[in-house]
Amino acid sequence: MPLPTRAGLDAVPAYRQGRSAPAGASKLSSNESPHAPLPSVVEAVRERLDGINRYPDMSAAALRDDLAVRYAVDPALITVGAGSVEIAAQLIHAVAGEGDEVMFAWRSFEAYPSLVRIAGATPVAVPLNADHAHDLDAMLAAITSRTRLIFVCNPNNPTGTVVDADALEAFVAAVPHDVLVVIDEAYVHFDRTESRGAGIELFRRHPHVAVLHTFSKAYGLAGLRIGYAIAPAEIAENQRKVAIPFGVTDLAQTAARASLDAEEELAGRIDEVVVQRDRMQALLATAGWPAVPSQANFVWVPARERTALLEALLHDGGVITRAFPGEGIRISSGSAADIDRVEAALAASSPTPDLSVRKEATV
Ligand SMILES: *Cc1c(COP(=O)(O)O)cnc(C)c1O
């Protein structure tokens, strides 16, 4: 007798983690922070270690209070999860089930389609435009009476593009109020456009917007798993019903609070990641691999049929990336040493006089 399987599960691909890196290689495959954790954060976590025999505060009250003050919102509107990917799942489960549709741009965050299918709902993927950015008009046109939730990943993973603030506001205003618009701002700290970080403002101005933030990327806590949403009251209440109890550890809550206290120090690190991102973008362009202008902590090279070639070339130079065969390659921004490696790998592959001159000049 075969073991039971849930109907529809064969349509769900297992989440594919960014490639692990052999010792000594530069792991630029998962958009992690290249920096070691801040000493103040490590110390705060260490102080809580002798309490791990106890369950954490399931409501993450202290952290939610900190966030409530920062954003001047009622703490009841804030929900915390084991990574914002868990919060994304909560939001989907809170509003959509069998027969309902959840929309997102494509290509975008790889977890969206699986999370939607796991909830029993139907994913609706609207292709990005020719600039690798959200096609908001096409997304509006794709709304049906069954649409329950729309993700806008801003900046978008893996293409690094942002949605213009005015265009996003017009989009949100045009979406019917019985559809929740979730603005996933996992990479908002790396956005250097003037209109950055519009999510919370949209939340304040519109009744059907939720904002998704994570401590994994800019704050460097990917390994501890913590993220949060700010959502309308009814949505937040239903998220608490579908959340897995005690999913967020006390150590993660502690590290998140300590990180909020260390934001100035973190800002310096974020600036460094942005500098290296822009440097990598320039290197790639010089070497004949133009990337899409990025506002995130990674760049996207739409290398199409040359994707495997670029992946192999970087791999040979000790740089591990995230490749989407036939489409493109996403390279996370890293430390200066990581991007030196990218530079060397590109130079090794195309020894143009131009590049060797640059190399000598920077050694
Ligand atoms: C990395 C990422 C997340 C969430 O990561 P967590 O570690 O689960 O907080 C959410 N959205 C996007 C678009 C991401 O790239």
From TrEMBL:
Its EC number is 2.6.1.57. The keyword Transport does not apply. The modification N6-(pyridoxal phosphate)lysine is found at K217. Gene3D superfamilies: Aspartate Aminotransferase, domain 1, Type I PLP-dependent aspartate aminotransferase-like (Major domain). Coiled coil: none annotated. InterPro entries: Aminotrans_II_pyridoxalP_BS, Aminotransferase_I/II_large, ArAT, HisP_aminotrans, HistidinolP_aminotransfase, PyrdxlP-dep_Trfase, PyrdxlP-dep_Trfase_major, PyrdxlP-dep_Trfase_small. Residues 27-342 form the Aminotransferase class I/classII large domain. The keyword Transferase applies. Residues 20-39 are annotated as: Disordered. GO terms for molecular function: histidinol-phosphate transaminase activity. It is an enzyme of class 2 (transferase). Its cofactor is pyridoxal 5'-phosphate. It catalyses: an aromatic L-alpha-amino acid + 2-oxoglutarate = an aromatic oxo-acid + L-glutamate. PROSITE patterns: AA_TRANSFER_CLASS_2 (PS00599). Homodimer. NCBIfam families: hisC, PRK03321.1. Aminotransferase that catalyzes the conversion of aromatic amino acids and 2-oxoglutarate into corresponding aromatic oxo acids and L-glutamate. This is Aromatic amino acid aminotransferase. It comes from Microbacterium luteolum (Aureobacterium luteolum). The lineage of its organism: Bacteria, Bacillati, Actinomycetota, Actinomycetes, Micrococcales. The gene is hisC.
